[in-house]
């Protein structure tokens, strides 16, 4: 199926992980947070969604300066770097991510050790372990990702036990339960590995309906699930809702292009991926990884339309991009993309690899 590549990408990012960047405001009901900090978080989130990265980083930096022993500023800064790496399919911010996420975890662990009723600390700690799990999957550290994901889910459950009105937490838990069920499908007969796909979807929809600030991210995660379920029209509906509010959202633009490919709406899909290509040219984060993904889908479309000259040129470009990536530190997302490129362009494996 054409959406297989997208699912591989998104499963590698979310199959064991669950908490999103833009969730945790409803927890202020239980813990008093300085209004200035709340405003900085809101500002940073808005700037991230609008691709105004420097302004977002400045807001999160101000939180760290004001609350050095809190995980909040470190969490959002790490999450921003992870979003950049995901958006542009690169690992160049990995060292910065590692520093900020480990700081968030260390400070969160200290808080829950001293205050076992701190729902805010449990919430951010769960989110921090979740983002570290995301990063570990991109490094191919699947066992480490699983350990962090389970630990993060446990902390989110504890946050909900303390404050059941933390509706945004249902977004993270819902994503976790759905993809855990998908990945462990062969183990459904075991009592502790039941099929919780629908429960996960229901919890995500609860976050969309009742959560304070996880609406956009929960919709984006739901789009991925709808793609996996083959419900392309519903996926397109939610993607358009996201883009109506944040037309600059790169993930939503990319998802729309992939959905249109699944629906065989080739002309519209071509326009979307050409739009992404123009956005990439304007971005200072541009690199061969993101360019390769766009070129892959355009070349796939040319093949489906029987435009063989364009298809051949696309494959030539993809081969050149693959060569540029030979010595780079690549994410699992890009490693999977290279496999897809080889299949699309019928590139034979190296002899040594074939013998192995």
What does this structure look like?
The chain is mainly α. It has one domain (4-286): Tetratricopeptide repeat domain (Serine Threonine Protein Phosphatase 5, Tetratricopeptide repeat). The chain has 17 helices and no strands. The chain has helices at residues 4-14, 35-49, 53-66, 72-88, 94-114, 119-138, 142-162, 169-183, 197-210, 215-228, 232-245, 250-262, 266-282, 288-305, 308-324, 332-344, 351-355. The model is unreliable at 1-30 and 351-356 (pLDDT under 50).
Order of helices and strands: HHHHHHHHHHHHHHHHH
The strand count comes to: 0
The percent range for strand residues is: under 5%
User: N-to-C terminal Cα separation, in Å?
Assistant: 27 Å
CATH homologous superfamily placement: Tetratricopeptide repeat domain
How many helices in DSSP terms? 17
CATH architecture: Alpha Horseshoe
* Sequence stretches where pLDDT stays below 50 over 5 or more residues: 1-30, 351-356
Helix percent band: over 70%
CATH topology: Serine Threonine Protein Phosphatase 5, Tetratricopeptide repeat
Radius of gyration: 20 Å
CATH class categorisation = Mainly Alpha
Count up the domains.
1
| Alpha-beta classification | mainly alpha
User: Main beta sheet: strand number and arrangement?
Assistant: none
**Overall form:** globular
- The chain-level mean pLDDT equals 84
């Amino acid at each position: 199926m054409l959406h297989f590549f997208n699912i591989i990408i998104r499963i590698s990012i979310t199959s064991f992980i669950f908490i999103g960047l833009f969730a945790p405001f409803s927890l202020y009901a239980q813990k008093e947070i300085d209004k200035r900090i709340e405003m900085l978080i809101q500002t940073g989130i808005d700037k991230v969604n609008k691709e105004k990265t420097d302004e977002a980083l400045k807001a999160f930096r101000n939180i760290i300066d004001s609350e050095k022993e809190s995980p909040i500023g470190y969490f959002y800064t790490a999450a921003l770097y992870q979003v950049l790496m995901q958006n542009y399919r690169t690992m160049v911010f990995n060292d910065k991510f590692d520093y900020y996420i480990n700081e968030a975890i260390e400070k969160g662990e200290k808080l829950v050790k001293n205050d076992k009723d701190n729902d805010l600390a449990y919430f951010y700690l769960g989110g921090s372990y979740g983002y570290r799990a995301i990063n570990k999957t991109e490094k191919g550290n699947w066992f480490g990702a699983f350990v962090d994901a389970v630990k993060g889910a446990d902390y989110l459950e504890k946050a909900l036990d303390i404050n059941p009105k933390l509706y945004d937490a249902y977004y993270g838990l819902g994503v976790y339960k759905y993809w855990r069920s998908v990945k462990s499908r062969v183990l459904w007969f075991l009592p502790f590995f039941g099929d919780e796909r629908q429960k996960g979807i229901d919890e995500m929809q609860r976050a969309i309906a009742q959560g304070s600030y996880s609406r956009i991210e929960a919709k984006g995660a739901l789009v991925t699930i709808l793609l996996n379920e083959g419900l392309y029209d519903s996926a397109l509906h939610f993607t358009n809702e996201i883009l109506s509010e944040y037309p600059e959202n790169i993930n939503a633009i990319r998802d729309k292009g992939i959905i249109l490919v699944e629906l065989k709406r080739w002309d519209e899909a071509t326009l979307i991926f050409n739009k992404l290509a123009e956005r990439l040219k304007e971005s200072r984060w541009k690199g061969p990884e993101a360019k390769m993904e766009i070129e892959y889908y355009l070349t796939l479309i040319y093949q489906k339309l029987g435009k063989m000259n364009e298809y051949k040129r696309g494959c030539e470009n993809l081969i050149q991009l693959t060569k540029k990536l030979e010595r780079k530190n690549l994410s699992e997302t890009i490693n999977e993309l290279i496999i897809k490129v080889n299949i699309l362009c019928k590139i034979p494996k190296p002899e040594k690899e074939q013998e192995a």
